[in-house]
């Protein structure tokens, strides 16, 4: 008989994905849930025992060689090749496929059929020309066939794969044993082998099985395919395959179908998908098993998904599943989140459910109480652990030491530490670290540093927590030498320079010894810090915050790194820090040391310094920086203009503020923010620029700035006189509808505007609103009284005067003046006199306005004697007449036909330095004309034109 020998060169492959089964010969459901025997170490061909005398074995499937082999050259199937190991340890590979013998009494399955099946599965054509193969026969003396030595190789982990690489020829060799007549068990065996090494080839073979009717009722094949699809994370295909499994192949869904998917999610921490498959499992009324719950709870423990963990835990208990790992995961999650009460509840539930703890669960329980410092409960747990026959390991002792440390019971912690030797255990790094943390938390400096040094002498390295604890202890106990030691240990451990500096400044800053930081660093890390921009910035910022400006400036002067952008940001941060702390002089010193560019100054730093100088009222210095910015190539933005405008407002130079705003408005791309708009409104109001106020208001509407309470109040207060009354009412109504609160000033402005416009119904509504909100003050009453007085509504005027008194306010001088003016102009002199008598009884001190009203009323009637009395009373009180008084007197002398006295008043005004206005000249000219002094009137008229007096002047 002849045999066809195919020599395969085996190349490097990838290792198999590790299986969760602990034994390679385990049968039945494993951790994943597959019900199939796992592939053993050795795999060989199952021979055709119908041909006993044949020297060639025909492949019918796979067998598991579970027998421990002796240490001698042996043959096995490796990557679909018959491998034998020679005496020198080299691996040789021979793939044997039977061919029909001339004397064959039984018809064998043609090799060509196996080749076609393999070709249809993996898509790779295989050479089958007879002229390209050689026939070999086994020698009569029993010697083995001549063979081609294969290259020695091992399994190599792929970069993106979890499978071992299988060559096409090796896969084809496996598939060549499969025919259309092969049983489902044989196909599943091949599928198992392919799935262990290549998802792609396994899925291709699965498709072939589907096409050839090998999947009917074959749940095991679907489980393997689902596992392969899960590793590819093709979740949509997995969903379709689950549907096909039930609908087409009439397989029942069970936990194993979903466990393969959940297993991959657990391995890759895909908690969203793990949750989805579990919810689908429940929706399809599939009963989860211990493996399902264990994998999900482990996944949620890793990702910290508490809500889903609680849901899964509740479902587990409802299903009467007892998974000890699920209880451990639940307890661990609660403990990690500090929910210790719930952790203890989970322990009680576990006891009530009759679940027997394992070693891990005992340790988890122990940790719950130790993290809270409940040492008595922790001791009971340890005793129970011993009583149940569990051997205490070093983890248990470490956990108990941590608990004693948290409860500051350091004597017991030391006792446990010393008892490790008698228990046959040696302290590990966690033991020492816990001792350092415990004594450090209790501020036991000597003991903490002793265990810290024992930790190092035992060959272990401190962790970050140990470093932090020791640095804080050193800072509190002012141990400079110890600080050198710990900082050096941190450097050796690979801690970044910036991290070391951060820990150091935080510890010494808290201990109030920040001044010790620089000497410590100069002894060990100073040179390295000077070359590290991040470390320098951390150190300098800490010094500035602790008002150690000299140290900060020294480091800035000696630094070795060069990064202009980083340096500017650092200086800006330092200046802002000083500004927020109110240390304006420190900010100026930092600014003066900063390297400056005359052509490209830093806009943000300049704006901050303008603000700082404004707060210091050093407006000249602030303006100097502004001019430097204008002279440079810097382009001012909205923030810069806002700062500059605020500087001029604070300096009470409103005209300069207006000029800056005009300059800003030329740059069309700049849109002010809410705060700049507020500054603009207040500036224009103080300057009386009604047109600018109107333009700014409509600019606010156009820019769609979100109006808040402050913006609404400012618009009403400032723009009340500049925009139409209807628009003002609209803004006010909008403000109320949006729930914003008004203030007293806003309501008083509205009262004044509505009163002057004669809208008394609206005015009274505003007044009622002010009363309800408790915002009525004396100005509110003065405003509404003045409105009714000006309109001649004496009844309403007197009504609100009475309301003013009822509200507990005395009638103000302003209210009396309004009443005097109203009665006097209306010619009701009796009421006028009565008001004067009330003012005298109330002992009101007359002001300029009161005397001017009296002068005006008496002068209109030509009562010069009364005018003279008022003027004498005015002077007797040490009050000199103002411009309005002189204008009124000149008019009164004109009416009384006393033009010479009117001219004398003009001369008196010049002597007192009071500049006449247009009303003054008008009244004088009218007085001269009334007394037929036309030539003199013409002279004064020409003089008025020559002096350029065109203003509206004061009221006559």
TrEMBL record:
InterPro entries assigned to the protein according to its UniProt record, in alphabetical order: PPR_rpt, TPR-like_helical_dom_sf
Keyword line: Repeat, Transit peptide
UniProt repeat feature PPR, residue ranges: 358-392, 393-427, 428-462, 567-601, 637-671, 708-742, 777-811, 812-846, 847-881, 882-916
UniProt key word Metal-binding: no
Region (Disordered): 1-22
Entries under PROSITE patterns matching the protein: PPR (PS51375)
Domain of life assignment: Eukaryota
Sequence intervals crossing the membrane: none
Gene3D superfamilies named among the record's database cross-references: Tetratricopeptide repeat domain
Family classification: Belongs to the PPR family. P subfamily.
PANTHER family the UniProt entry points to: OS03G0856100 PROTEIN, OS12G0638900 PROTEIN
The protein's name in its UniProt record: Pentatricopeptide repeat-containing protein
Organism whose genome encodes this protein: Urochloa decumbens
